[in-house]
Structures are given as C-alpha cells and as structure tokens.
Amino acid sequence: MTKKLSIVTFMIINGLLAFMMIVTLMECQDANLTGNNPITTSNTFYLLQLGQTSPVYSIVMLCVLTICGSFLSVYMKNNAMFYSLIARIGYRRFLKKGLIASFCTGAGLSLGMFLYQLITLTLFIRPLSVTPIQSHIADTIAFFDDGNLWSTVQFCTLSALGWGIYAIFVFSINLWIKKTPLAIGAGSLVGVVLFMVPALMAQVLNGFLAGLFYTFQLSTLLVPGTVTYRVIPLDHTVSYFPYSVAIYLGLAMLSMYLWKKQKEQSV
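^ that's the sequence the OP posted. Answer follows.
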C-alpha cells in the first residue's frame, strides 16, 4: 500500500509541476509583450501566486500542497487498521507525525514551486536585481514587488511558512472527516471559503472590522502582501501576517486537541 501511495503522490506532484509549467510559460509569453526588466519579472512572479492567476490553478495548489504530506495519516485514520496503529504508537505520536509531515510537505512544495517559477522567469524575461533599484510605485502589484531579489526571498520565506501552517490546519480539519475522498478536497473547499468570505464580509460591512477579517483572509497567510482591502493600505498588509499565523496555528492545535480528547473518551 505504501508503494502505491508513493507512486500516486509522485504522479500528483509531477502533474502539479507540469500544470504550473504551462501557466508559468503562458505568463512569460504575456510578460515579454510588456517589457524586459526586473520589474516585469517581479510583476509576473506575483501574478503567478494564489488568487492572482487561473482559479483552477489556485484550487489545484490548495488541494495538492495540503494533502500530499498528510494523506497517509488521513488514510490510516479512516482505515480499519487505525486502532491497531494507535495501540502501537498512541494518539500523541500519530498527531505529531501528521503535523510534521503536513508542514514540511506544504512548505517544501511551495518553495520548490517558487524556485521553478523564478528560474523560468529569469530565463525567459530577466533576472531580478540583486541591488536596490528605484521604486516603481505605479508598477507595483504587491508589497514585495519591487524587482529586488532579496524582497522576493522574504516573500517566499513567509509564504512557505504560511503554506506549511495551512497544511497543518487542513490536517486538523481532516481528522474530523471520515470519508477519505472528501478529505482530499478539503484543502481546496476550505481555502475557497476562507479566501472569499472574509473579503465579502469586509465589503458588506463597509470596512467595519476589516482588520479582523483581513487576518482570517487566507491570502494574508499564504501570499502575504499580495491582496488588500480598500481600507488597508498595501504597505500595512504584511504586518497582519504574524496574527494570521497565530490564529491558524492556534485553531489547528485546538482542533487536534479536541479530536484527541474525543477519541480517548470514546475508547
């Protein structure tokens, strides 16, 4: 079974990379029509991030990056052999392994995608600048979008951390889902809800509690500095990232704790 899962996981990851390659090359083709400078490279990179390009691409990312690391744990939980597994390793170790696998895979795959995107953009457009360059405010589409390599490295680091934490959050939700096929799509379904509902609520309430909704906005966690609200300036967006990390990580830990207690009491 483990060998089959490894093969399936390998095929899924390569399918994602192939899909990402197509989307990236399409963006490169469009970018070549607008200019050939570090700002163009930077603009194109941020246009490739979650919620900025194809909705299908974003949904696939939300699914694959959150389930690859924890699929084995989710599968075993919904399998008849689960209680024999727990008898050997216990709930605490089971959760620890699922948490670590989820974080490492989510963060690792996102970093791999960022690296591929940057290499492709460098080859087809132009390398990012390694020294500070004059700001192009009119051309900026994200907080870190200034054509500078160091700024993009900062974004990739924060985003990878966010993807890892979101993968843990989805793992904690999947603990409560008894059907494995539903668990596979949970990352996408929950992601779409957390991407759209906070923004809609902030708009309906005309900016009231916008800071709270923006903290729960999934883009704040996964792609810091790329999405903003009307009442939140672009240069303030990244300051919400630590609060988003704390909230999603706290909710994940609470969910795992409650699931563990519920299982222990039902034995």
